[in-house]
Amino acid sequence: MSTNNTFHTALNNLLVEIFNGPPEGGAYILNPGDPGLLRQLDTLDAKAASTRPMPGATTIAAHADHVHYGLSLLNRWAAGEENPFETADWEASWKRTTVTEDEWKALRAKLRQAADSWRQAAAARTEWNEVAAAGALGSASHTAYHLGAIRQIIAAQKR
After folding, report:
1. In this structure, which CATH number among 1.10.357, 1.10.3470, 1.10.8, 1.20.120 belongs to the domain 3-157?
2. pTM for the complete prediction?
3. Taking the domains of the chain in order of start, what are their residue ranges?
4. Measured between alpha carbons, how far is 21 from 17 in angstroms, rounded to an integer?
5. pLDDT tens sequence for the chain (159 residues)
């Protein structure tokens, strides 16, 4: 298998794992049987997604919106936009801190669609240069970071 094919397969495996949970016998980031980000979010209602774990801390809804925003930029880039990151407003991606049940359902659906689109775009890409590869790997690690932060908020809410 060529280096590009090896990278391509590894990236696809990591993206599937972080968003949907690891497949049987293939956990690299999460524990076997972990639900992954999307199914984890599906276990929460809008109230839990909108509750700050402590004053000044952000919410699960804000984390979900931020991850969605980052994926939307990656999808624009994968669709041929030269540099959607140049004008990205990362602060705006943190402003949605509360959601209604309908908004929470819609945000999760948009996040799921963006994650699926990004995984498919990454799977379809045939050539990877250093910047593209680092950005793609960064998308998996960045999402994993936010999944961990979301789980810390969930734990804090249970105290």
Report:
1. 1.20.120
2. 0.93
3. 3-157
4. 4
5. 555 688 888 899 999 999 999 988 778 999 999 999 999 999 999 999 999 988 888 999 999 999 999 999 999 999 999 999 999 999 998 999 999 999 999 999 999 999 999 999 999 988 888 989 999 999 999 999 999 999 999 999 987
